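Example 3.2
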Amino acid sequence: MFVSLLALLNGYFHFYTTASYSVSSLGITSPYAVAGYFGMFLTIFISPIPDYVLVPVYGYLSSIGVFNPLVTFLVCLLGAVLPIEYLSGKYAARTLLLKALAFIHISEKDLEVADTWIENHGHFSIFIATFIPFFYSASALAAGTLKMSSAIFYLSSIGGFGLRFLFLEYVGFYGIYVFTATFDYSLRSVFVLLLILSSIFAGFYLIYFQRLQPIPGH
C-alpha cells in the first residue's frame, strides 16, 4: 500500500524525478551485487530485510544488466522455499523445537496460531502464508509438526512465492520509470491495481487474524 501510494503521488506531483533512465546515472549496485547470485541467495534466505524490499531491488539490478532476470527469479525462489523450517518441524521433537525457536522470538503461541491456520485451511494454507510477511516461517514449522505431505508443502510454497516474486521483480524491473519525468501511464494502472489488492488483503488480514485471537477466559 505504501509503495503504491508513494509511486502514484510521485507520478502525479513529481516530488522526485530523474533526468533519464540510464545505467550511468542510476547504476547503484553495491552492496546488493557484491557477492553475485550466491549473495542474492543468502540475502533472501537469511536476511531480516523482507523480500518485499529485496526482490524489487534485484529486479531493478536486472533491468540495468547486473543480473539475468530469469536467473534472479529462480535464485530468489530457491532462497525462499528452502525447507529448513518445514524439515525442522517434521523431524525435531516439538519441545526441543520450541526451546530453539525462543532464540529467534517465535513463541509456542505463534506456532499454535499457525497450527490452527493449517487445520482450518488445509493445503491451501501454505500457499496463502507465502503472501504474509514473517508468517510463512511459523506456518512451515507447523506444517512440519503436523506432518503435512512434503509434495503438497513444496508445491504450495513454490506456487505462492513464484507468483509473488514474479510480481515483485516486475515492479523492480519497470518501477524505475516512476521516477522519470515522463511517468509511464501504463504503470499508473499497475500501481492503482496494487493499491486496491493490497487494501483488500490488509482488510482480510486484520479481520481474519482478529478472529483467531483467543477470547479472554476461554
